[in-house]
UniProtKB/TrEMBL annotation:
It holds the Pfam family Alpha-L-AF_C. GO terms for biological process: L-arabinose metabolic process; polysaccharide catabolic process. Homohexamer; trimer of dimers. This is non-reducing end alpha-L-arabinofuranosidase. It is an enzyme of class 3 (hydrolase). Residues 290-490 form the Alpha-L-arabinofuranosidase C-terminal domain. It comes from Fusicatenibacter faecihominis. Keywords: Carbohydrate metabolism, Glycosidase, Hydrolase. Pathway: Glycan metabolism. The lineage of its organism: Bacteria, Bacillati, Bacillota, Clostridia, Lachnospirales. Its EC number is 3.2.1.55.
Length: 497
């Protein structure tokens, strides 16, 4: 099969907001305990943070991490998680049916984020709590001093404000599984008042209002419209969440998930812009795709879990090679929408549906780590409006799906151009051509390929490199013509300079 990739250096989508490469740590399973925090471990530093995990997070270049949930946040009493450890209460955590000891809380997370070279994206509880507790939390985190909550932070040993700039107004408030879930009207009003109070206290923050928990929710569309119509003035972004599954073992359909993400983004953009038009608004509401990943491998094991354990092995998906292909494609999709998707969080970061896994004896990279880390590292700059003219296949869930997903990202100041491409064809290589005469003098500096004969191959602690990128040599750039082929079922990164 053949595909033509067409791009023009004057025809741009937008600058990539680095927050597109965000991630997520929820107080859930072994994400915090045994993931980022394990006092007593040989890998732990003086604060109990795992250094091996911090190194891998740095390798992924994650600019922002959402915390502390997720479903967890809708029952979270933030006051439980601060102050002297021995005085912090253990709670029955209803979202995941476990005991939360609160040994790790928000101040520890803020310290961890600094060490991991990242920023905190904090979520407030709008399930069992409301505007008052949210503004108190903001005062604790961001107010310099001289008030009850800012002085309490100082008393707890944190003299300087955490200065958290990005705030989620609740989590998945449309979902019947969510503690304190609401109708669109109820939630729209709560979000409006919470956002208003928070911005009265700290006008420098940005807020993310909850969109639907996914495009298959029965209220999808109507929810976005009513919620945003109610709280437009107080919010800056709307959230999108979507998880992908190959439970049916239909790999072509699974890999077409990027078409699903593309349509989801376009639909939400249309609704947000229609609300703006109805309001004669000046402000464009952008998107925070703050939960996305493959999630299904662990469902069966999770159903058998005993309740009320502490930090159990929960949501521990072991990712295979085809998952990495989809993650690579989803990143391409996010880049192609860089004009409106300003924030995105791979859900999650460590142990819980995560690119990084840990045990008492080490930490290792799951398959999905690689497309994420490389796209995050080199997918920065300006996205070129990349047209892919190539064959499509008929997928069960999404209809026509292209065999080839591709996008070009240009860092003009460094004269670096990077092509990210996924060939989803399970049988055939894909011949590609791309006219790059506008980039005179550029040559290929690196071609990395992630592929494996076994779509279900995984990385384990004993064999951590089964699925890992290797050097590619099937594409050349001569006289401004990029040509060659991308091997069947492969993720590719071609760097040119
Ligand atoms: O990421 C796991 C869960 O998925 C989150 O807690 C929730 O927001 C979503 O349903």
């Amino acid at each position: 099969k053949k595909a033509e990739i067409i791009a023009d250096k004057h025809y741009l989508i937008d600058e990539v907001d680095p927050r597109l490469y965000g991630s997520f740590i929820e107080q859930l399973g072994r994400a915090v305990y045994e993931g980022i925090y394990q006092p007593g471990s040989p890998f732990a530093d003086e604060e109990g943070f795992r250094k091996d995990v911090i190194d891998l997070v740095r390798e992924m270049k994650v600019p922002v991490v959402r915390y502390p949930g997720g479903n967890f946040v809708s029952g979270f009493r933030w006051e439980d998680s601060v102050g002297p450890r021995e005085e912090r209460p253990a709670r029955a955590e209803l979202a995941w049916q476990v005991i939360e000891t609160n040994a790790f809380g928000l101040n520890e997370f803020a310290s961890w984020a600094k060490k991991a070279d990242t920023n905190v994206m904090m979520a407030v509880n709008l399930g069992t709590r409301g505007p008052e507790e949210a503004r108190n939390l903001l005062e604790y985190c961001n107010f310099p001093g001289g008030t009850y909550y800012s002085d309490l932070r100082k008393k707890h040993g944190y003299e300087k404000p955490h200065d958290i700039k990005l705030w989620c107004l609740g989590n998945e408030m449309d979902g019947p599984w969510q503690m304190g879930h609401k109708t669109a009207h109820e939630y729209g009003r709560t979000a409006e008042e919470t956002g208003r109070l928070m911005k009265m206290l700290d006008p420098t923050i940005e807020t993310v209002v909850c969109g639907s928990s996914g495009p298959t929710m029965p209220t999808f569309g109507a929810w976005e419209d009513e919620v945003l119509s109610t709280c437009y003035d107080q919010v800056d972004y709307m959230s999108l969440h979507q998880y992908y599954s190959n439970a049916a073992n239909d790999t072509p359909d699974f890999l077409a998930g990027s078409v699903g993400m593309d349509e989801f983004i376009s639909s939400v953009v249309s609704i947000l812009d229609s609300v703006k038009a109805k309001k004669r608004g000046k402000k464009k509401i952008n998107l925070s795709f703050d939960e996305w990943n493959v999630w299904y491998h662990s469902h069966e094991a999770d159903e058998k879990l005993e309740k009320w354990g502490k930090a159990p092995h929960q949501l521990e998906d072991i990712y295979n090679f085809e998952d990495a292909l989809l993650v690579g494609s989803l990143l391409i999709t996010l880049l192609r929408h860089a004009d409106r998707v300003k924030i995105a969080c791979l859900a999650q970061l460590v142990n819980v549906i995560a690119p990084i896994m840990t045990s008492d004896t080490g930490a290792w990279r799951q398959t999905i780590f690689y497309p994420f880390a490389y796209t995050s590292t080199y997918g920065r700059g300006t996205v070129l409006n990349t047209l892919v003219k190539g064959p499509v296949y008929d997928s069960k869930t999404y209809g026509d799906a292209p065999y080839l997903d591709a996008v070009l990202v240009w860092k003009e100041e460094n004269e670096e151009l990077t092509l990210f491409a996924v060939n989803k064809d399970l049988e055939e290589d894909m011949e590609i051509h791309c006219d790059l005469r506008q980039f005179a003098g550029y040559t290929i500096t690196e071609h990395l390929v992630l592929t494996n004969d076994d779509l279900k191959a995984v990385n384990t602690e004993a064999q951590p490199d089964t699925v890992a990128p290797a050097k590619g040599n099937t594409v050349s750039l001569k006289d401004g013509e990029l040509s060659g082929y991308l091997t069947k079922h492969s993720w590719n990164m071609i760097r040119m300079k």
